[in-house]
Amino acid sequence: MHRSYQLHIRLKKNTSLTVGKLGTFTFPTGWYIYTGSARRQIQNRVARHLSRKKKMRWHIDYLLAAPHANIIRVTLTHKEECCLNQETKGSILVPRFGSTDCRAGCGSHLKFSEREP
Known about the structure:
Radius of gyration: 13 Å
Structural class: alpha+beta
Shape: globular
Largest sheet: 4 strands, antiparallel
């Protein structure tokens, strides 16, 4: 049974977004990897992320709603969310993004890279 997933996202244009209560940030053009998890029905969670019409519930919803953001690939894994995130290369641009409840010290569950990882 899969525990975690990663969304590989391409942002084609610099974008300024207000991300819930985290604040407003500029997301530069490039590649993003978002690491998430679901205790059950992970396919439903991923399908929700792939949908353009949804209520803004999680930090990632704000980024995915941007007109120049596209999910390029989804990977599912048995690894624990924070372990997977910590193994993922990239820069943290938005502290606490998707990780406000993280106890493993990840800093953020969204990583940025100027080039395709």
